[in-house]
Write a structure and sequence with these properties.
This protein has 1 helix and 8 strands; from the N terminus they run αββββββββ. By secondary structure, the protein is mainly β.
Length: about 150
């Protein structure tokens, strides 16, 4: 009886902890332009081979959703690829409540930064930080879960 009660209590506490932490970043997220404060894009975060990735699925300021827009500032294999479907978040892994160890690319200038993400507010928001070197030198954006 004591073991059953202990197990039920442990499961309950784990569930509450996950709900408060926010949970997985997998899903669609709305990004906001830092300068104009307007909705900018929808990024779909997904998991593949135990890592977290994110691709652009819609550009909200483009008439055609961005279907005709190319990443002209990107370098390497991503140069002149369509923006829709472009993988901008690569290789993050769970590290406690955060996802770290990967990169994020800014398709506006083609620059690649180290990245970390943390789902907050019960899963409705995500802090996304891009940085050079260590986390103190960088920029944080809030992304909002698309329902």
């Amino acid at each position: 009886m004591k073991r059953t009660l202990l197990l039920v209590t442990l499961i309950f506490l784990c569930s509450v902890s996950l709900a408060l932490a926010g949970g997985s970043p997998v899903g669609k997220w709305k990004t906001i332009d830092d300068k104009t404060k307007k909705e900018k894009s929808i990024v779909e975060i997904y998991e593949a081979n135990g890592k977290i990735y994110g691709k652009i699925v819609q550009l909200l300021q483009e008439r055609d959703g961005g279907a005709s827009k190319l990443c002209t500032k990107c370098t390497g294999a991503d140069q002149n690829k369509p923006m829709i479907g472009l993988v901008i978040v690569k290789g993050l892994a769970a590290d406690g409540d955060e996802y770290t160890g990967g990169t994020i690319m800014d398709p506006n200038d083609g620059k690649v930064y180290k990245c970390k993400m943390e789902v907050i507010e019960g899963g409705s928001q995500m802090k996304v930080r891009g940085f050079i070197g260590f986390s103190l030198i960088g920029r944080t954006q809030m992304w909002y879960k698309v329902k």
